[in-house]
């Protein structure tokens, strides 16, 4: 198993092994190898799920941090100052 094995590929291989075991086509000599391979695939899937969970948690933490940051002042946002008119009246 390489690190390039995707979660989907691992699940598909697990399903293939399971189907073979359910049909009783696996002889005893092959059974141990398939069970060991299944264990490797399950470990890989668990690791990928943990990695995905950590990545998603980091995304939500970053979003929460962004929400907690104070809104920048008008000067910090590079917004032009409000225009003033004589006597406070608009030109139209």
From TrEMBL:
InterPro entries: Exonuc_VII_S (IPR003761), Exonuc_VII_ssu_sf (IPR037004). Its main location: cytoplasm. Residues 62-76 have a biased composition (Acidic residues). Gene3D superfamilies: Exonuclease VII, small subunit. GO terms for biological process: DNA catabolic process. GO terms for cellular component: cytoplasm; exodeoxyribonuclease VII complex. Pfam families: Exonuc_VII_S. It is found in: Cytoplasm. Signal peptide: none annotated. It is an enzyme of class 3 (hydrolase). Residues 61-92 are annotated as: Disordered. Its EC number is 3.1.11.6. One of its GO terms (molecular function) is exodeoxyribonuclease VII activity. Keywords: Cytoplasm, Exonuclease, Hydrolase, Nuclease. It catalyses: Exonucleolytic cleavage in either 5'- to 3'- or 3'- to 5'-direction to yield nucleoside 5'-phosphates. Belongs to the XseB family. HAMAP family: Exonuc_7_S. Heterooligomer composed of large and small subunits. Bidirectionally degrades single-stranded DNA into large acid-insoluble oligonucleotides, which are then degraded further into small acid-soluble oligonucleotides. This is Exodeoxyribonuclease 7 small subunit. It comes from Hymenobacter cellulosilyticus.
């Amino acid at each position: 198993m390489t690190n390039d094995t995707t979660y989907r590929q691992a699940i598909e291989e697990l399903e293939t092994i399971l189907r073979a075991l359910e049909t009783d086509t696996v002889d005893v000599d092959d059974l141990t190898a398939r069970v060991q391979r299944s264990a490797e695939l399950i470990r890989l899937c668990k690791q990928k799920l943990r990695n995905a969970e950590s990545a998603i948690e980091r995304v939500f933490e970053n979003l929460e941090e962004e929400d907690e940051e104070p809104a920048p002042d008008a000067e910090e946002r590079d917004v032009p100052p409000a225009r003033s008119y004589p006597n406070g009246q608009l030109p139209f």
